[in-house]
Amino acid sequence: MAVKIRLQRHGSKKRPFYFIVVADARAPRDGKFIQKIGTYNPLGQPTAVQLDRQKALDWLQKGAQPTDTVRRILSYKGVLYLKHLLRGVSLGLFDEATAMGKFQKWHEEHEGSIRQKQEESARARRPRKPVAPRKEAEQKEEEGN
After folding, report:
1. How many Å separate Cα 13 from the centre of its chain?
2. Which residues does residue 135 pair with via DSSP β-bridges, in sequence order?
3. Burial category of 103 from C-beta neighbours within 10 Å (exposed 0-12, middle 13-18, buried 19 and up)
4. What CATH fold (topology level) applies to the domain 3-122?
5. How many C-beta atoms lie closer than 10 Å to residue 58's C-beta?
6. pLDDT one-digit tens code per residue, 95-139
7. What is the SS3 string spanning the chain?
């Protein structure tokens, strides 16, 4: 049985909300699924993704194939990097403690860069202080010149 990790659409018209599910490749998009492993809301600012990292990793190691969009989400959340590191552990390139240390370092850097981008976008959206109205004396002075 071919298994895919894909999005299952919910929400009303023009207001999508997705469940990230593990499903048989032959099942319809919004049909029967094996397990729900997360949610994805593309309309939020920033985009909201809730994902059970351990379940996703287990399914990837069992051979489930993610769709293109889900692959991007898994990469963003670090699941594909963790799978890569654990493959190195199984090949004997380094031990599991080293792999988890590398993942924690990457995760901290990634979260820091996300926070920085959010702060920059918040600064850009902040309204500027309104300009104070000019005093009547200044207006008359300009009109007289």
Report:
1. 22
2. none
3. middle
4. S16 Ribosomal Protein; Chain: A; (3.30.1320)
5. 14
6. 999 999 999 999 999 999 988 988 888 888 776 666 666 666 666
7. CCEEEEEEEECCCCCCEEEEEEEECCCCCCCCCCEEEEEEECCCCCCEEEECHHHHHHHHHHCCEECHHHHHHHHHHCHHHHHHHHHHHHCCCCCHHHHHHHHHHHHHHHHHHHHHHHHHHHHHHCCCCCCCCCCHHHHHHHHHC
Look up residue 65 and give its two tokens: 């194939």
CB-count burial class (<10 Å; 0-12, 13-18, 19+) for 81: middle
Q: What is the pLDDT of residues 92-107, one digit of tens each?
A: 898 999 999 999 999 9
**pLDDT at res. 38:** 95
Q: What is the pTM of this model?
A: 0.79
pLDDT in tens, 78-91: 999 999 999 999 99
Report the pLDDT value the prediction gives residue 117, as an integer from 0 to 100: 85
Distance (Å) of CA 134 to CA 24, 81, 130, 140: 69, 58, 12, 10
